[in-house]
Amino acid sequence: MRARSILAASAAVAALAATAPAAWAGGPAASGDTTCRENQLTVRATGTELPDVLHISVTNRATRACVVDQIPTVTFGDLDGAAQPVPPSESAAYRVKAGATAYASVRTTSKLDNPDARVVDSVTVAGDPSHQGRSFPAASLGAPDGVVVWEPVTTLWKSSAAAADKALSDAVNGG
Q1: Fewest CB atoms within 10 Å of the CB: 21, 91, 121, 155?
Q2: Within its chain, how far is the Cα of 134 from the centroid?
Q3: Using CA atoms, how far apart are residues 21 and 103, in angstroms rounded to an integer?
Q4: Measured between alpha carbons, how far is 52 from 123 in angstroms, rounded to an integer?
Q5: Sheet of 134-137: strands edge to edge?
């Protein structure tokens, strides 16, 4: 009896996955997925109405699904280190379907007037740590005087910008 329940649940999950919207980015890697080549991805970063939050995304322009690291690589000017994932996570593969986009939200500082904060003139975003990434000048992110950085954090890749914003809000506000 228990085996039937498991089989029925597996069939329901498979049916749900088959009917998921094509724009859905993905999730855990499937057998046979390869790491996305950097030239297969379109990387974007934009400012938001909040002075300390950026939206980033990667779009898979290839004809097949591929994987990026579930933790976006976000670095700031010439500062050492990268934005840390929230919640704290280990590196793992995140599958991006062909033609789909994965989204993340980045908080650059927990307090804009922090005396220890640094100001950088660019932010570099990569879909995978093996990629060089694309640099975005601070002015293009809505920060003509530079991006304020102190203890930056990033969400994991999500299937929508709204999901990334919610994950960031939950992580930094204890939601």
Answers
A1: 21
A2: 14
A3: 16
A4: 13
A5: 73-76, 122-126, 134-137
